[in-house]
Amino acid sequence: MAAQLEVSKDGRDGRRITPHALAAEASIFPHDSAIWRISREHALVLGGPAAAILQIAHPQVALGVAEHSDFKNDSLSRLHRTLDAVYTITFSPRAEVEAMAARVRKSHAPVHGDKPVRYSAFSLDAQMWVLATLIQLGTQSFERFVGPLTQADRESHYHDMRIFGTFFGLPVDYGPQTWGEFSTYYEEMVHGPMLASLPISRELANHVAFPRRPRFLRAVWPVSGLMTREFLPSPVRERLGFTAPSNFASRQIDRTIGGVLPFLPPELRFTPHYLAAMKRLT
Fold first, then answer.
1. Which SS3 state, helix, strand or coil, does residue 30 take?
2. Per 3-state DSSP, what percentage of the chain is helix, strand, and coil (rounded to 5)?
3. Most CB within 10 Å of its CB: which of 18, 52, 229, 243?
C-alpha cells in the first residue's frame, strides 16, 4: 500500500493526501520550464490576434470556424478559449488539464466537412499549424517585449509545446522535431500557396482585426490593430488585405511596454493561472 504523507492545508487540520492525489495537483510542466517562463507573461496577449488570424488563414481552420461557430458576431471568443486552454494546460493541476483536454475533444468532434475542401478539427496538418502559430507568436512576443531567448531556450520551449500539443491530439512525432526544423516549416508555410488561399480567410481575419464585440476594444484599436499588422508576416498579411504598420508607432509602443514591464507588480505582469500555480507551490 502506498505510503501516505501528512500534509496540512492550513497548517492545522492535518488532512492526509496520498502521493496519487499530490500527482493530480501537480502541473504537467515543472515551474522552471521554458513554457512557464514564456507563457506567464501577460504581454504575449498582444500577439494573440495575429496568432488567431494566422490560424484561420489555414483553409481547414477557416472552414471549421466559419461553419461551426458564431465567429462573425463574436470573433474574440475563440481567442479567449485558446488562451484559457494554453494557460490551463501549462499551469493548472493535471486533473484540470485532463478535463480541459476532454472539453476540447468534445467541442471539436462535430467540426468536419468536405466543401469546398475536406476539413476536420482533428486534421494533424491543421493542428500542427495552429500549434505553430502559438509557438512563433509566443516566442516573438516574448523577445520583443520581455527579453532575448537563447537557442537552448527556443529548443526547450519547442519541446514543451510539442508535449502541450498532445492534449489537442497532435502526436509529438508528427511534423518538425527541432526548433531548426520548425523554423523551416514555418517559413515554408508563410511563403507557400496554402495560407489565405480561400476568400473566407480574409473575411474572418477582418472580424478578428475589427471585432464587433466587446465595444471597449474600439478604444484600444489603434494599439491592438498596429500590433496585429506588425506580427502578421508578409506575404500572408498582404493576401489578407492588411497594410504594413508604421515603423515609428511600433518603436514607440515597444519602448513604452519594454520600459514599463520590469516595474509592474506580479498581479499585472503575469497571468492569473501562473500566479495561482506559484501559490500552490508555496
1. coil
2. 65, 5, 30
3. 52
Q: What confidence score (pLDDT) does residue 236 get?
A: 97
Question: Distance between CA 16 and CA 4 in Å, rounded?
Answer: 7
**Calpha distance 4→11 (Å, rounded):** 17
Beta strand pairing status for 112-113 and 16-17?
Answer: unpaired
Antiparallel, parallel or unpaired: β 16-17 and 5-6:
antiparallel
Q: Rounded CA gap, 142 and 3, in Å?
A: 43
Q: How far is CA 263 from CA 141, 204, 251, 266, 269, in A?
A: 18, 37, 20, 9, 9
pTM: 0.87
- Burial class of residue 244, CB neighbours in 10 A (0-12, 13-18, 19+): exposed
Which has the closest alpha carbon to 186: 51, 81, 44, 82?
Answer: 51
Q: How many CB atoms lie within 10 A of CB 166?
A: 14
Contact present, 85 and 97 (Cβ < 8 Å): no
The secondary structure of 197-255 as a DSSP string is: -SHHHHHHHHHHHS--SSGGGGGSHHHHHHHHHHHSPTTHHHHTTPPPPPHHHHHHHHH
Res 129 pLDDT > 80: yes
State residue 249's pLDDT score: 74
Give the span between the Cα atoms of 209 and 71, in whole angstroms.
12
pLDDT at 169 exceeding the cut of 80: yes
Write down how long the chain is: 282
Predicted confidence (pLDDT) per residue in 140-166, tens digit: 999 999 999 999 999 999 999 999 999
